[in-house]
Every structure is written in structure tokens, then in C-alpha cells.
Design goal:
This protein is of the alpha/beta class. The chain is about 30% helix and about 20% strand. It has a single domain, classed as Maf protein (Alpha-Beta Complex). It has a 6-stranded mixed β-sheet.
Length: about 200
């Protein structure tokens, strides 16, 4: 019998994306929406890995089933790696995706050209189960920041991030193309390989 695997994210967009990335495994994929409401943990880690493990451990204790969680964000070279672990709340607590993108573009307004707007998406994916097994995988994708938001696909910084080798933003690319090259796609494909021994 297949075992439950909970995608532990309070972000519905992210949870849906991760569920798709894990859909053809033998695990029965669940999300936090399948459980009673659980308060979100305080993400006070200094790295993506620390936050991913923090979330996975927290939700395993809350729901009593194996969980996968990730922490991801955008790193812009000329901003010394910002927004980094603060990507989701770059423009302040309770901000929208559009608020974050607007702040980022303001910060980069004086930087012209691809070379001065180099950036990458980084994702750390973590698996934790009630027995204490912990697995971690990481994925990155290089690119640069567009001059303005383009495209309605994806979420977060997708409309302003142009992956290396493309002229379109993640917001303009079809989801299948994005998943094939994205930081989250790479991290969860690696994590899936690690999970095959546990199925």
C-alpha cells in the first residue's frame, strides 16, 4: 500500500506545484489542506536548507505523516544575494507577489543590461518522516531580472526572472518548460531519487 506524503507548505501555489512534481510516484500525495488547520512555523533559519528542514520537522510533528517542504528564493548578485531567504516578504509582512516584484525592480532601476542584473533562483527541498529520517536536495537556475514583469504563468518572481538561454520570463514560459529547468523542479527531481529507496 502506498504511503502518504504531505506537501507541507502554506502557500497554495507552491503546494500545487510541488504536488505536480511528485505526482507520478507511488506516494499518495496530500497537502496541508487535507488536514485540520495548522499554524505556520516561524521561518527564522539563516539559509534555505535550515528553513526547509525547520518546516518539514514542524509539520511532521503536527500531522504525524512524512512531509516534504522547501524553502526557495531569488538571489540577485548586485544586491549581495538579496532578497534571499526573505524573498517571500521582501516588501514587508503580508505583501503581495506584485509588491515584491515592484520593490525588486525599484532596487535595480539604475542597473541596465543583462550583465548587471544577474540572478538565480535557489530551492532547498527537505523530507522528514516520523521515524526521524531526513533527506535534503538543492536546485538552482541561473538567469537575470527583466526590465518589467511579463507573463501571467507561475507565481512569485516568475514574471521578472528570465532563465539563462531563454528570452522569456518564467511567467511567459509554459509550466512544463518551467518545471523542466526550474530550481524547484531540479531540487524535487533530486529528492525523488533519494525517496525511491523509501517507497
Amino acid at each position: 500500500m502506498s504511503q502518504e506524503l504531505v506537501v507541507a507548505s502554506g502557500n497554495r501555489d507552491k503546494a500545487a506545484e510541488v504536488a505536480k512534481l511528485l505526482a507520478d510516484t507511488s506516494w499518495r500525495i496530500r497537502t496541508l489542506a487535507d488536514y485540520l488547520p495548522v499554524d505556520e512555523p516561524v521561518e527564522d533559519g539563516e539559509t534555505f536548507e535550515e528553513n526547509a528542514l525547520l518546516k518539514a520537522r514542524y509539520y511532521v510533528a503536527a500531522v504525524g505523516a512524512p512531509c516534504v517542504a522547501d524553502d526557495s528564493g531569488l538571489e540577485v548578485d548586485v544586491l549581495n544575494g538579496a532578497p534571499g531567504v526573505f524573498s517571500a516578504r521582501y516588501a514587508g509582512e503580508g505583501c503581495s507577489y506584485a509588491d515584491n516584484n515592484a520593490k525588486l525592480l525599484r532596487e535595480l532601476a539604475s542597473y541596465r543590461g543583462k550583465e548587471s542584473r544577474q540572478a538565480r533562483f535557489r530551492c532547498c527541498a527537505a523530507y522528514v518522516d516520523p521515524e526521524g529520517t531526513e533527506l535534503v536536495a538543492e536546485g538552482t537556475v541561473e538567469g537575470h531580472i527583466a526590465a518589467e514583469p511579463r507573463g501571467a504563468n507561475g507565481f512569485g518572481y516568475d514574471p521578472v526572472f528570465i532563465p539563462k538561454g531563454f528570452d522569456a520570463t518564467f511567467g511567459e514560459l509554459p509550466p512544463e518548460t518551467k518545471h523542466a529547468i526550474s530550481h524547484r523542479g531540479r531540487a524535487f527531481r533530486q529528492l525523488r531519487e533519494l525517496l525511491t529507496g523509501l517507497e
